[in-house]
Amino acid sequence: MESRRKPLVAITSVLLFTLLVGYFAVPSLYLTQDYAVKSHKPSFTAPKQNIWAELDEVEAQDVYEFLLEDFKHLNLTRHPKSLRDNFVNTVESLKPNKTDAVAYLYGGADVVDRYAKVSISQFTDGAPYFFYYTVGPLPVTKDTKAEPYGYPFNHGRNWIRSPIVDFFHIQQFSVNVAKNVSDITLELLGATVNENDPNDPRGLVAFPRSFRVVTGGLNFWLQMYRPSYSSGARTLLPQGLYVKIDAKSLDFEEWTVGQYYYNGMIYADEHKLRAAIESPGFKKTPANLDGPWTDTEDFESTPAGRELPPPAVIQPYGPRYQLDRKQKYISWFGFEFFLTTNAAQGVLLYDIRFKGERVMYEVGLQEAMAHYAGDDPMQGGLEWMDSFFGMGKDAFELLPGYDCPAYADYLDSQTHDKYETTTIPNNVCVFEYTSDFLLARHSAQYSTTASRNTYLTVRSVSTVGNYDYTIDYVFYLDGALEVKVRASGFIFAAFYTTNSDKTEDEYGHRVHTALSTSMHDHVINFKADMDVAGPKNDLVRMAIEPVTKSYSWDGPDVPKRNTMHLVEYNVTEETGLDWPKNGGEFYIVYSDKKNAWGERKGYRITSGTGMGNTPHLTIINSTTLGDSARWAEHDLWVLRQKDSEPRGADPFNFLEPFDPIVNFSQLADGESLEPSEDYDQDLVIYFNVGAHHVPTSDDIPNTLMHTSGTSVMFVPHNFNDRDPSRESSQGVRIQLDGKKLSGGFAGEAYDEDASNGELRTRHGKRDAKTKKLKAHYFGGTYEKGLKVPLEALEPNFEGYRSTMHAVPDLTFNGSAVFGTWRKED
């Protein structure tokens, strides 16, 4: 056997915000020559350069060196210890303006100049700030400049202030607080904090949740947790003791310890709590202890059938799509598009075409938010904005045969952080898959025709703390495109209190001795820059409405008929929309071009496959989020396309939710969508997927993907003259009686010498008298004697060499101090 890929040496990256070190390696897939009969054509190349590609290591290092020289006045350091140091934080490719990109793609213009987008941490005026700059053109020459990057942001500023200077000291302060009340934690929780080993399974750790204060600055609530033995289940092990910290000053030496919260009661300080513990009638809650109940694997149970492996999907003849690995360009049955990645957003797709016509300029994730609710100081103000931690940076190496089929193509990505480049191998997969249900079928009197439902998927999995998000871009043979997200991992659970004032099941359900779930909303935002048959588009709400109407053909017998009809409403200004009740409206992006039948070409936007309609945020005017995620307030939005509004969110929104660097409400500000001299009707759609998650005991230990997946689909609406999947799908027609012709077969179609081509004869039986086939195949079929190696069914993981994943542990390391900020009195 031979390896399809050589392992790559992992590159260590010190991640300031995650404070973790990760090592990555490429898994090798071992396939025999018999199995890999066909492969991508060596001559296949992209028609254009991937102008959205991430910077490579050489480009990034050149940018670092340029900045160190150009910004000498800032005394940039290569080894930052806190946000009091000035340093280059991140480097990535700056995506070109659409105006310039389209001129290159369709207008014959020269290739777009390449630029970098950088963030620099700078301590100025006694506070830490992050500044955005552009550096270019690249490669670095005497013409290269660094300039403030402010035009895409609402206020025109290129900076945001960090509310925290040194989060290492926050963690140390938390540990010291826990140490000072070790007698209390031992009495109430049965353990004490282990300063030397935070992973001590017999110890405790303290996790701070920060929140904004009206008068300025931050305060914290600390909650005690138990580390998990081996499964990473720390978010299932909260303990029932909370401590409030006054941290409004940037100087941690001025911080003070305030109230304690235990079993529904507030105590002014540790002395009041100690006195209460020693008083008669004090009620203790049981400790939340780890055990087999948090294990994610069961190696012991043997129900009937488990001794056999499940069915597996294989691809004996190689891929049917074409892939240019260098340009990350993919072509499959009419679909063509470019792929790129970045640290914050993960996978982004550009210039999506179908059958040579434009469909979308761009589709990609903007932000992944989870917002909790609860009656304790932790859950009551908890929310996460995961692009800050890095949906691309935390998209780790995929498991062949599990995350993706063994036969998939796997692509690497790179991120550039604190002067280091990290290569994350095999963290994006591309594969074709045949569904368990058909694309189309029909049974006529003497025949049955069936077409297999085969689709192309681009997949990545981002593990941000406790949750794993599987993100799919799915392409169908008819020209439909689906964006789907499924979630798994550990829930962020609450401690179950036993006080008499507790309202059972108000925020979740009891799922273990001392554990309760917390309801939360996952709202994950994507951008789709629509170019349906070109850039000139408009959005129409096509409503299905009841109507009472008279028809001449009804005559006097039925003077009025209760029926329904279609009514179109033009969307004439930027606005947010929700999925209609009873599915009573279609949201259609129309082109100004028409198909052969005089109908305008369009794509319908619809809530897709999964657990019901995709949601928007339940909470109205969230106290925690401020203005940082206004896109979460509706299911989808329609906006003007503007080069000055490339994104609907920014990772740094997490640092200042009440004055975010991108305020979506200032993007979706009601501008007219009617054509004018300064607007050519180029539309952008922002849409949400996610779930209203009310975890139950069935989420222990992990949430299951089939119960958490939601999607949005973009479906052709008169875009084609006829269903294009007829020419690309594989299937069969079974003729039940050779003497009876039905379903559209013409007699000469059974003649092997007919001009329409030779009939497929494999696996079919001829009628003895008519010599006509009973089984007729369209598209390829499998041959006898096919050899399949074991690795095609159960991949060999010897080539999977990752020794550690740099998962941002949102509960137990310094990155957590950016937790959430709740504006409170």
From TrEMBL:
Pfam families: Cu_amine_oxid, DUF1965. GO terms for biological process: amine metabolic process. Topaquinone (TPQ) is generated by copper-dependent autoxidation of a specific tyrosyl residue. One of its GO terms (cellular component) is plasma membrane. It comes from the Eukaryota. Contains 1 topaquinone per subunit. Its EC number is 1.4.3.-. InterPro entries: Cu_amine_oxidase, Cu_amine_oxidase_C, Cu_amine_oxidase_C_sf, Cu_amine_oxidase_N-reg, DUF1965. Residues 312-725 form the Copper amine oxidase catalytic domain. Its cofactor is Cu cation. PANTHER family: AMINE OXIDASE, COPPER AMINE OXIDASE. Keywords: Copper, Metal-binding, Oxidoreductase, TPQ. The lineage of its organism: Eukaryota, Fungi, Dikarya, Ascomycota, Pezizomycotina. This is Amine oxidase.
